[in-house]
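Field: sequence (string)
Field: structure_tokens (string)

Example rows 1 and 2, in order.
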Amino acid sequence: MSARRVCILIFAAFQLAFGRIAVAVAQPPIPNPPELQHRLDELVHKARPGMLGVTVIDLQSGQAWRANADRSFPMMSMFKAPVAAAVLAGIEQGRWSYGQTVVVHRDELESGTIRDHFQGERMSFTVRQLLTDAVSHSDNTAIDTLLKVIGGPQVVTTFLRAHGIDGMHVDIGERGFGSVFEDLQPGQSSPAHETDAQHLARLRRGYRAYLADPRNRSTPDAAADFLRKLWNKELLSPASTQYLLDLMYAQTTPSRLRLGLPPGVRLADKCGTSYTLEHTTAAYNDIGILSWPNGHAVAVAAFLTASTAPKDARDAIFADLTRAVVAALHPRDAAVPTAPNAPVRRSRATSAAPPGSGR
């Protein structure tokens, strides 16, 4: 072998070795999955005697971390995101349109944006307006009206099943669960001359009934799968996917997972909340997609049920969950102080919502 050929081979080997070293140095630290799983288990323990269920999926690598992830939890207003997805799928198929108008009568009003600004005995809303109110403002009148437009809750469950999402089902609207919480039949009014003690006893029965009700439930695994398929454009067209994500980005109230976001990280999410009776909160949820400027995205689905913790403690669990995800998958961001809450446009469904109101 000539001296020139030997030099070329040595130079090539040097370049290959140096290139490998450079790549190894340039790559970010490998995430520590066991540490994230440990943090999830700690949060489950912290949530007791309430039950916390969580699924985290790295949408780039496909890795998943889970805690009570195959248990079924009440969704409350979290179900408005899959309902919106089913509505958008129908728009793509030409079954209805963004500009289609729907009449809402005063006796159909429920808690939220529309009721607070309703005028007269009837008003017309476009499907586009209803989608915004339902997802971004978590309006109960809007979501029940959209369910009427598409033909009922079963259409949403059929849509989910058609896309391989089996652990989530929509069976009833917001008004129906309002009756459950108040221990009344649909359309039934509160008993006349009911005493305070009788009223409280009725609400207690309704609360127990809601916690045992199998309708409108999801596992964390199914909710995370919904988010994964939404992000990957497996549920809707690219345009409809972005439309729904934008509605979810616009939800800033309530703020749960959002409380732990570092600067520069976005969150497209949907919360679900029951009212609190005698220090017990039946449902306190948030599902969302965290996305970084480099395109990395992580789906997080968190459900908390039967919690006796005060609101600040519940919020801390969700904030800590976000911080744990960031610390495991983006450790450099974990050293950056959490971004202050974005300016909040108050939803018309306030924290003093009546029984059955969900956000």
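Row 2 begins here:
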Amino acid sequence: MNARKKAIQGFLPVRETLAALHPRLVTLGERHDAAPRFPADALALLAQAGLHLRYAPEAAGGQAFSDARAENLDLMDALRAVGRADLSLGRLFEGHVNALKLLDWYGSSAQQAQLAENLARGLFYGVWATEPPPGVLIVQDAGIEKLEGAKAFATGAGGLGFAVITARPAEGRRRLVIVPADHADRTDLSGWRVRGMRATGSGTYDVSGLVVTDGNSLGHPGDYDREPRFTAGAWRFTAVQLGGIEALLAETRAAMSEAARGDPLQRVRFADAVVATRTAGLWVREAALRAADDHDDAIAFARLTRGVVERAGLDVMELAARITGTRSAFDGQRIDKITRDLSLYLRQAGPDYARDQAAIAWLDHDAWGEGDLLW
């Protein structure tokens, strides 16, 4: 049995699988960033290892986990490891996993069967919810429902196979629609001129004219916003960010000269970076477990985790620059690439609102967990 079949049928341990892929993914990530270009060959490596279907619904060939906790811990390892190799690739992989979860929760048997066929072809999915005003609408055209509008910051536009998008009907809550994501004539990447996360190709994608049918309409109105899944699911992107922070810490250690290692001040800075990184890891892990349990405080915990990971990333970026000096800013240095990627990726929407809402929950009760309450 070849390695690909073994990976897909038996699902090798995710840490072992990604450790073997890591050097190649790092090299490809540097090339994709320099071009920049969509990381099709890196995604192909993930697919060859079976990682693109590992977290799919079981009906579509996904791994059968013992419970939701085991799945989330396994997924956390995968997201961290991919993010550690290349944050742009990690963002794409995280979007793919998000789509798989939506298809698992809300997909019909026919849609999951179609998903299995598409995954067998090595295709990847995304989830696009951001849009310029007035947004993507579902309009009536001679009795047929059609989409009108475009998605912005559409990660993987033009390169993914499919995307699950949000669309708003004339009345009622927004709906989910599965659309092809690889049409070049619908893709506009001209506005994606950024210092970091360049290979994600997060441009604009026009969905106007695409027909909405029973086959590509996913779930029921309001499913995308269903809580706690919607907000608690933020733990997944924090896991990718964590991987980037871990990579930056490792690169900083490797870059430290003997003189730096002999300098107590530099060692203190390195220790601070270790603490920040590992603290973020503890919060992401707990957020993943709370999400798996559909815990009453999963939302509050995910919201605070976003801030913890952001703070850790900002701190480790500064500490890395102070430890390594001008080397951290040279083009072609891995420390520079990770820093550029993290600087953009950490800019998630509404950080102050998320932290404020979490604080409200903690003011009401200690949301850390039963058995260790402070109030």
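free_text_note (row 2): The longest strand covers residues 162-167.
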